[in-house]
Write a structure and sequence with these properties.
With 466 residues, the chain is an alpha/beta fold. It has 17 helices and 18 strands. The strands form 5 sheets. Strands 5-4-3-6-7 form a 5-stranded parallel β-sheet, with helices on one face. It binds iron/sulfur cluster (SF4). The site of iron/sulfur cluster has 14 residues, from α4 and α12.
């Protein structure tokens, strides 16, 4: 019977069906970081359990790491303590740790793929919501909570309900100035932030097939923002080409064998889906959020909606969003004055994102009064950017070039909004208080759009700038 990738991966990793209807699922790769692992290791210690498969567990530090200087000891003693805690836990349990001195540190969802740890047909778990990023390779990848991190450390398994699969075909061809970020924002706008509950999203169609792996990662990254348990793209030649030669990827004949298996895990042509959705990629414009959920967005050429114009179930949310954001219904989102521009995160902190932002940065200077943060997603991205001269491009335009980490995506380090600042951000969440100030405001958009907003001092259609 024709099966989807989700079903193939699920069946291949199923240890047994549990009485309550869940599956005991074996986890091929467990990525950990400093925020959600300490309590899990403490629980392990209390229970006297070893880490079941240290060779399948990899750690890095990303949330709390400062981006002005990673020099040890870190300036923030609490951050230094958390870092040392993770170092000790990894050393004690024989887990590979990609710390600041390793040359491989970075956001967990950036380094997994670039090291080749993330591979098609895998099950992947990490104590971070945006683990869905790894689905770009044709993996089934979940964000998990701290108690589940403990479970995976102790057993390498999780008890999970099998999600249904919704196939989302993005047809046509994107226009210049429209990016993967716009695609996923448009999908979430259409299906809602809760529309994916109970589903895995399978992204397909000509637009997705034409995307690079980095673009696919941007799309899969935000699956969770649409409520989906995970999101994935079927592995293809683009996937195999990206993986070839990476550190943890099999070599030579073993690589060819791996490719044959990876290929076999893609959804079969006749697979059936619980739901199917089609989106016209050619009709998409650069997209900007106006509200406090990633689903509250408009094309940059559209106006902010009146609460009366949205469906009944969305009205209260839009009213709350407009009051918080101090944006006026009926006005275009273009022209909204920004205070901060943030380029980075596991959504858009990869080299291709920085290249697009730099393309715009070459065209002008940061507007007076706008604070900027350009934060590579990993030390490897930082090296690549330096080799291409991107820091000089950003600095010449007045952007602040930083060291790798999560930075202002979540503001668990010193990179924070102040007061009511309005931030044009390439990250994935625009919730109240997400960027470090309880009253700070976030507009999500693509890296090119953020760079354009930084130069103009307000939201602008990047197609007019390029
Ligand atoms: S960049 Fe943001 S979303 Fe991604 S792992 Fe870091 S804090 Fe989480």
């Amino acid at each position: 019977m024709a099966r989807s990738l989700l079903d193939k991966v699920w069946d291949a990793h199923s240890v047994r069906e549990l009485p309550g209807g869940q599956t005991q699922l074996f986890i091929g790769l467990h990525l950990i970081h400093e925020v959600t692992s300490p309590q899990a290791f403490a629980a392990l210690r209390e229970g006297g359990f070893p880490v079941r498969f240290p060779g399948r567990t990899f750690a890095t530090v990303d949330h709390i790491i400062p981006t002005d200087s990673q020099k040890r000891p870190l300036a923030d003693s609490l951050a230094e303590e958390m870092l040392q805690h993770l170092e000790r836990n990894c050393a004690e349990h024989g887990i590979a740790f990609f710390g600041p001195g390793s040359g491989k540190q970075g956001i967990v969802h950036v380094i997994g793929p670039e090291l080749g740890l993330t591979q098609p047909g895998m099950t992947i778990a990490c104590g971070d919501s945006h683990t869905s990023t790894h689905g770009a390779f044709g993996a089934v990848a979940f964000g998990i909570g701290t108690s589940q991190v403990r479970d995976v450390l102790a057993t390498q398994c999780l008890a999970l309900a099998r999600p249904k699969v919704r196939r989302i075909d993005v047809t046509g061809k994107l226009s210049p100035g429209v990016y993967a970020k716009d695609v996923i924002l448009a999908i979430i706008r259409r299906l809602g932030v809760k529309g994916g509950i109970g589903f895995a999203y399978e992204y397909a169609g000509p637009v997705v097939e034409a995307m690079t792996l980095e673009e696919r990662m941007t799309v899969c990254n935000m699956s969770i923002e649409g409520g989906a348990r995970c999101g994935y793209v079927n592995p293809d030649e683009t996937t195999f080409a990206y993986l070839r030669g990476r550190e943890y990827v099999p070599k030579d004949a073993a690589f060819e064998r791996a490719v044959a298996w990876w290929r076999s895990m893609a959804s079969d042509a006749g697979a059936t889906y619980a739901d199917r959705v089609e989106l016209d990629g050619a009709a998409l414009a650069p997209t900007v959020t106006f509200g406090i959920t990633p689903g509250q967005s408009v094309g940059v050429d559209e106006r902010i909606p009146f609460p009366a114009d949205v469906p009944d179930e969305d009205r209260a949310g839009v009213e709350e969003a407009l009051a918080f954001m101090e944006l006026k219904p009926g006005e275009p989102i273009a022209g909204a004055k920004i205070d901060v521009a943030f380029i980075g995160s596991c959504t858009n902190g990869r080299i291709s994102d920085l290249r697009e932002a730099a393309r715009v940065a070459r065209l002008g200077k940061v507007a007076p009064g706008v604070r900027t943060f350009v934060v590579p997603g990993s030390q490897e991205v930082q090296r690549q950017a330096e080799a291409e001269g991107l820091p000089e491009v950003f600095r010449a335009a007045g952007f602040d070039w930083r060291e790798p980490g999560c930075s202002m995506c979540l503001a668990m380090n010193p990179d924070k909004l102040r007061g009511r600042e309005l931030c044009a951000s390439t990250s994935n969440r625009n919730f109240k208080g997400r960027q470090g100030s309880p009253t700070g405001r976030t507009l999500l958009m693509s890296p090119a759009m953020v760079a354009a907003a930084a130069i103009k001092g307000h939201v602008v259609d990047v197609r007019e700038v390029l």
